Amino acid sequence: MRRANGTGTVVKLSGRRRCPYEARTAATIDEWGYPRYDVVGRFATRTDALQALALYNNDPYSIADRTLTFSQVYDRWFASKYGGDKQRFAKATICTTQNAYKWASALHNRVFSELRTTDLQNALDNIELGYNSLRQVRTLLTQMYKYALEYELASKNYAQFVTIKQPDDTESGVPFTKEEIALLWANVDTPSEHQAIITALLILIYSGWRITEFTTMPVADIDLTEWTMTGGIKTAAGKNRVVPIHSGIQYLVQRMCGATHGDYLLTAAGGKPINTSVFRKAMQPALKHCGITSVHTPHDCRHTFVSLLDSAGANQVCIQRLAGHASKGVTQKVYTHKDLDELREAVELIQIAR
């Protein structure tokens, strides 16, 4: 049956092909008098090709954009979100986004418009990381698809159907015991291949930073005169918070600042901050080196910090501000000298038994 003028055509290609039916847009005549058209796609049956052509005619889109790879769409989205006023975003936030993209490497060379829920789910399932890292990848997919729908780079938001099959371990955790903390202290000043990780663990235990906050914190945001660390991600209450450095770990922080070869306390190749997955892998051998047999995660350091503050009788408002927890009673975002003094007093309530 002849199709109506201007609605395109379906052509069966020669040879043995898995998808021999090619849906083409309506042809136009170029300056040389030759017909020019765009290919909507190739399909296994004529019916599939006709349906695709009908969908295109109902809502025409850029054919060229539908051939973009996942990486190309990511580049456009990244430039759209971060390319303008980067000052609105913390460095840790940008780093988290870049890590999520790297972890989704299985999708990088795939044509974005051809991806379906199964493709996204399989990619997420094959990433051997914890729940929080997988959540970052899913967040990236969600934001990319929102952008893709806005600019007609995709026809449907398949990211909304993706689920994380690992248990949520972001808020659970087992604090370090006093005996385990003592074992860390017993080994922190002894030179070894694990010394940097042991040092970092003790700093985390007495400061409460999330691992991503700590690894992406620029050395420039660590004040060795006022003895404070400034950073934070995730929530409005957690961003740009100031944590006084406990007097017991000041020499550890100073040692790490002096030993780094880049802009961060722990750096990878090229001076970039160490990947959190690399830190996690290095953490377990470091614990065994100290004689700690229990399994711990970097997030356990944060739980330990809050637990130590609570046991020492610190004010709950101070605990919330130090940990970056949202609270109706904590609305002030500017840190005055009085605020810092109160936070420092709370931190110093923790007794370090070496």
How many discrete domains? 3
Adjacency order of strands in the biggest sheet: 1-2-5
Q: Provide the structure class.
A: mainly alpha
CATH superfamily annotation of the largest domain: Intergrase catalytic core
Q: Cα-atom Rg, whole angstroms?
A: 27 Å
The CATH class assignment of the largest domain is Mainly Alpha
CATH topology of the largest domain: hpI Integrase, Chain A
Instruction: Give me the strand/helix succession.
Output: EEEEEHHHHHHHHEEEHHHHH
Helicity, as a percent range: 40-55%
Report the count of strand segments.
8
Shape: elongated
Protein architecture, described:
The chain has 354 residues and is mainly alpha-helical. A hairpin with a 4-residue loop joins strand 6 (222-223) and strand 7. The longest helix is centred in the middle third of the chain and has 20 residues, at 131-150. 32% of the residues are buried. It has 3 domains: 9-60, no CATH class; 67-161, DNA polymerase, domain 1 (Orthogonal Bundle); 178-348, Intergrase catalytic core (hpI Integrase, Chain A, Orthogonal Bundle), CATH 1.10.443. It has helices spanning 46-58, 70-82, 91-103, 117-125, 131-150, 178-188, 195-205, 211-215, 250-259, 276-290, 298-311, 316-323, 337-348; strands at 9-12, 21-24, 28-29, 35-36, 39-43, 222-223, 228-231, 241-244. Helix 3 (91-103) packs across helix 5 (131-150), helix 6 (178-188) crosses helix 7 (195-205) and helix 7 (195-205) runs parallel beside helix 11. The protein has 13 helices and 8 strands. The model is unreliable at 328-332 (pLDDT under 50). The N and C termini lie far apart (87 Å). A 3-stranded antiparallel beta sheet has the order 1-2-5, with helices on one face. A 3-stranded antiparallel beta sheet has the order 6-7-8. It has a two-stranded antiparallel ribbon with strand order 3-4.
